[in-house]
Amino acid sequence: MKTRITDLFGIEHPIIQGGMHYVGLAELAAAVSNAGGLGIITGLTQRTPEDLSKEIARCREMTDKPFGVNLTFLPSVTPPDYPGYVKAIIDGGVKAVETAGNNPAKWMPALKDAGIKVIHKCTSVRHSLKAEAIGCDAVSVDGFECGGHPGEDDVPNFILLPRAGEELKIPFVASGGMADGRSLVAALAMGAEGMNMGTRFIATKEAPVHENVKQAIVAASELDTRLVMRPLRNTERVLVNAGVERLLEKEKALGANIKFEDIANEVAGVYPRIMQNGEMEIGAWSCGMVAGLIHDIPTCQELIDRIMAEANTIIRQRLEGFLAA
Ligand SMILES: Cc1cc2nc3c(=O)[nH]c(=O)nc-3n(C[C@H](O)[C@H](O)[C@H](O)COP(=O)(O)O)c2cc1C
Question: Which end of the chain is more exposed for a tag (fewer CB within 10 A), N or C?
Fold first, then answer.
């Protein structure tokens, strides 16, 4: 399939694996890229820029296809060494960066000078237009369904994608709720030129996470996610578990007075314990409603091949068939 997204990143299929904390390691990024999509290493999961350089080198040993790095700009008391991470990306010869969180304007000159294509992930039309205005090459439009941070506007992709299509000149991919060939064709119909998946890629053979995490996604239905940290205006969609129920109880009890410290036990330092140790009940980890559409744990190659075959059948048979009737 050829779209402006496949052209932009030099990939075979318009499928991107979004950055995921403690999931987007070299193994997954390489597997997605080898299967013809764009795999992405999550920059901040690497403790230092030196570690990121090593992870980029490790990924390059596993694939000769293009892959990217995610840089998430979140408000934090002690910000990570962003200049160091940007340098590691540039020196590592990476040609695609997925930015997320705050506006990446400050980093655009360095990234563009190095010939890097920038896709900014955001959850609203106004932020997408801002990304276009500051010179991003593409946008990943993340609907309310998504795993992770859906923002505070709560606009689902059935509205958000066509709205983005009405306004944007640069290409965009649909993100949030994407799982299969149906998702891809629907995304294309709504104006996107590809799709970005998070949760779906966790339940793959190559995802370097504990088996419990994959099984939890397969077992979950579309009713099993919750929104946490809304009172802090840092909303995150997570899979429900005992820790998340505890967190939500605190949010209810403390109301507008809640502070991050009140819920730190359920959100801080949770990722390595979930993703590496498989301690599934301890707290909040991102997961999309799309879990309801995930029923197996294929390889990335099997998943992407299946998506492309299904998309082909839907377009050529189901949709064409309606016209012929
Ligand atoms: C476990 C997990 C961790 C994530 N971590 C990040 C992250 O560190 N930075 C980021 O930009 N997005 C992160 N995301 C969001 C994904 O990149 C992607 O936008 C989102 O999962 C899309 O929604 P979906 O899960 O419905 O496919 C994460 C998502 C998940 C499920």
Answer: C
